[in-house]
Design a protein that fits this description.
Layout: E1 6-9, H1 15-24, E2 26-29, H2 38-45, E3 50-53, H3 61-65, E4 72-75, H4 85-90, E5 94-96, H5 103-118, H6 121-129, E6 151-154, H7 158-171, E7 175-178, H8 184-190, E8 193-194, H9 197-203, E9 206-209, H10 223-228, E10 234-237, H11 246-255, E11 260-263, E12 283-285, H12 294-312
Bound molecules: (2R)-2,3-dihydroxypropanoic acid.
Length: 331
């Protein structure tokens, strides 16, 4: 009788995926709402062949050193800044993520934050709920128009393109983008123009961030950058919190350097409940929910299971973060 590979999942993900993994592996799922501690996770590493991880789990070299059998880390996210990918490759461990299936849901959320911040939706709802709505106010709650205004996309990958497409075709927005790579599709289909970051910041009415978190983008949006933007500008971040220097964003919003912002991601997550971030009237904050639709999370779980099962059986991962690990995979 062949021994099933041992797999640890750091949280419950949609059931169908866990059932598939459970049919072929000896699966243990962390049952709590809060993630397991790093120490607990490391204690599980010793006899683990596969790991289903979340963006809240730190998977670093020390963890991998404690996991001599580990063949695959299947991250239930498209982002993988929680994993030391170079360390995984060096140890022959395959890493998978869930690209593609969350593009539309994330672009929808970016647009939702953009329009909510521009039109002061949450602030107005708070006002109504607090009983302050006494009459129609000619000068009350004035926000920013969207029609024909310029959208600046920082990071024109799949999600940036999907947001640009919505804004260009829905609201006739001219599109500027900043990216190390040229996006010919965006240029051809949306007439998007690749510009340097300074130009993008000074010319855009809406700036939306869609880059990875890496050493170049960490802290990219600081006070200096916010001051380059129009005082009427709206800033949106659905990528990763540490791309923004949060105290600088707070200062920019308080001093009117920019008009408003919408964040799906913060640094740290969650923010301190006492943080001004949760109190500014011109800031809308969502708890990292851009991919949180039933269909998207199921599709992510499906890819996550495919990656995991391929990984434990030594097959190439369908959605591989480090395809260069092939040839030196652990068996
Ligand atoms: C991701 O997948 O990286 C998102 O941040 C969460 O779905």
């Amino acid at each position: 009788m062949s021994v099933k590979p041992k797999v640890f999942a750091t949280r419950r993900i949609p059931e169908a995926a866990l059932e598939r993994i459970g049919r072929e592996c000896e699966l243990e799922v962390w049952p709590e709402q809060m993630p397991p501690s790093y120490e607990y996770l490391t204690s599980k590493a010793a006899d683990c062949d596969g790991l289903v991880s979340l963006l809240t789990d730190r998977i670093d070299a020390a963890f991998m050193d404690a996991a001599p059998r580990l063949k695959v880390v299947s991250n239930y996210a498209v982002g993988f800044n929680n994993i030391d990918v170079a360390a995984a490759t060096a140890r022959g461990i395959a890493v998978g993520n869930t690209p593609g299936v969350l593009t539309d849901a994330t672009a929808d959320m970016a647009f939702c934050l953009l329009i909510a911040a521009a039109r002061r939706v949450v602030e107005s709802f708070d006002y109504a709920r607090a009983g302050h709505w006494k009459t129609w106010e000619p000068l009350g709650h004035l926000g920013q128009d969207l029609q024909g205004r310029t959208l600046g996309i920082v990071g024109m990958g799949r999600i940036g393109y999907a947001l640009a497409r919505r804004c260009h075709f829905g609201w006739d927005m001219p599109v500027l983008y900043h990216d190390a790579y040229r996006n010919e599709k965006a240029e051809k289909e949306l007439n998007a123009q690749q510009v340097d970051l300074n130009t993008l910041l000074s010319r855009s009415d809406f700036v939306s961030v869609h880059t990875d978190l890496n050493e170049k983008t960490r802290g990219l949006f600081n006070l200096e950058r916010f001051r380059q933007m129009k005082p009427t500008a709206v800033f949106v971040n659905t990528a990763r919190g540490p791309i923004v220097v949060e105290k600088d964003l707070i200062a920019a919003l308080k001093t009117g350097a920019i008009f408003a912002a919408g964040l799906d991601v913060t640094d740290p997550e969650p923010p301190d409940p006492a943080s001004e971030l949760l109190r500014l009237p011109n800031l809308v904050v969502a708890p990292h929910i851009a991919s949180a639709t039933v269909g998207t999370r199921s599709a992510m779980a499906d890819i996550c299971a495919n990656n995991l099962l391929a990984g434990v059986s030594g097959q190439p991962l369908p959605a591989a973060v480090n395809p260069d690990v092939e040839g030196k995979r652990r068996r």
